[in-house]
C-alpha cells in the first residue's frame, strides 16, 4: 500500500508590512497559534516604516517563505521610477540607508509573481505593481486580468482587505486582498493578513491588535519630516491623511 500523502500546511499571506515590526510580530504570533508553517510574502516589506532592517531580519528567519517584490522594493532600488514627492523620496533615502546597497538590490530582483497550489500571487496586479483592484470593480479590470489562467488571484498594494469575484473573459475569477500588516487603509488600525487552506482551499481574513500608536510615534521619532504623514496614516488607518 502506498503511504498516504500528508496534507500541506496552511499558508499565511503577508502583504504590505512596511517596516512595522510590532505589527509583523503580532501577526506571526497569531499565525503560529493557527498552525501556520508556510508563508507568502507579498512585497512592500520595509519602505515607509520605522524598522526596515529589523523587519527583514525577522522575515529572513521564517522557515518556509516564498517572496515576491512590490513597488516599494523596485522604488528603493530605482528612486527615479518613484513619484517625485518628499514623502516617497525621503522614505526611499532612509530605507536604502538602513538596508544597504546589496540588500536593496537583492530585494529588487525578487520575482514579481508566483503560483502556489493553483493560486497566482502578485503585488498590485499581474500587469503592474502599482495598478490594482478595489472592493468595487473598476473600468480597467478586464485589462488587469488578461491572460490569467488560475481561478484565484491574491494581491495587495491598496491596503484594503476584501474578497470578491470578477466575471471577466467569460469566467469567474476570485480576487483576494489579504490587507496590510503594517498600514491598513480601511479605517481599522489592526494588522491584517489572511490564511489560505491547502490546495486552493478557503481564505480566512484575520485582524490582530497591536500598539499602532506606538508604531506611529516610532516613525515620527526616527525619521521626522516626511514620516509625519506616515505616522498619521498608521494612526487613522486611512490613505487620505496628509
Mean pLDDT over all positions: 95
Number of domains: 1
Secondary-structure element order, N to C: EHEHEHHHEEHEEEEEHH
Q: Taking Cα atoms only, what radius of gyration do you get, to the nearest Å?
A: 17 Å
Main sheet attributes: strand count, strand direction, barrel closure = 5 strands, mixed
Distance between the termini: 64 Å
According to CATH, the homologous superfamily is Metallo-dependent phosphatases
Assigned CATH architecture: 4-Layer Sandwich
Helix- and strand-based class?
A: alpha/beta
Helix count, DSSP H or I runs of 4 or more residues:
8
Residue stretches low in confidence (pLDDT < 50, at least 5 long) are: 1-6
CATH-derived topology: Purple Acid Phosphatase, chain A, domain 2
Number of strands: 10
- Neighbour order of strands in the largest sheet: 3-2-1-9-10
Overall body shape:
globular
Strand content: 15-25%
Task: Give the helix level as a range of percent.
Answer: 25-40%
* Quaternary state of the chains: single chain
Amino acid at each position: 500500500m502506498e503511504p498516504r500523502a500528508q496534507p500541506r500546511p496552511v499558508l499565511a499571506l503577508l502583504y504590505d508590512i512596511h517596516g512595522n515590526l510590532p505589527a509583523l510580530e503580532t501577526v506571526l504570533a497569531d499565525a503560529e497559534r493557527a498552525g501556520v508553517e508556510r508563508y507568502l510574502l507579498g512585497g512592500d516589506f520595509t519602505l515607509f516604516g520605522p524598522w526596515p532592517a529589523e523587519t527583514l531580519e525577522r522575515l529572513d528567519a521564517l522557515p518556509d517563505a516564498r517572496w515576491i517584490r512590490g513597488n516599494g522594493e523596485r522604488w528603493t532600488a530605482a528612486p527615479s521610477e518613484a513619484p517625485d514627492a518628499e514623502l516617497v523620496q525621503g522614505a526611499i533615502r532612509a530605507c536604502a540607508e538602513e538596508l544597504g546597497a546589496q540588500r536593496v538590490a537583492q530585494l529588487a530582483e525578487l520575482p514579481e509573481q508566483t503560483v502556489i497550489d493553483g493560486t497566482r500571487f502578485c503585488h498590485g496586479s499581474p500587469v503592474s505593481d502599482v495598478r490594482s483592484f478595489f472592493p468595487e470593480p473598476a473600468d480597467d479590470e478586464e485589462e488587469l486580468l488578461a491572460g490569467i489562467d488560475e481561478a484565484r488571484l491574491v494581491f495587495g498594494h491598496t491596503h484594503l482587505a476584501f474578497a470578491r469575484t470578477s466575471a471577466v473573459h467569460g469566467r469567474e475569477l476570485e480576487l483576494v486582498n489579504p490587507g496590510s500588516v503594517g498600514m491598513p487603509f480601511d479605517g481599522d488600525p489592526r494588522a491584517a493578513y489572511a490564511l489560505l487552506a491547502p490546495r486552493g482551499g478557503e481564505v480566512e481574513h484575520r485582524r490582530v491588535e497591536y500598539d499602532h500608536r506606538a508604531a506611529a510615534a516610532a516613525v515620527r521619532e526616527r525619521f521626522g519630516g516626511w514620516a509625519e504623514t506616515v505616522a498619521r496614516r498608521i494612526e487613522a488607518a486611512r490613505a487620505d491623511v496628509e
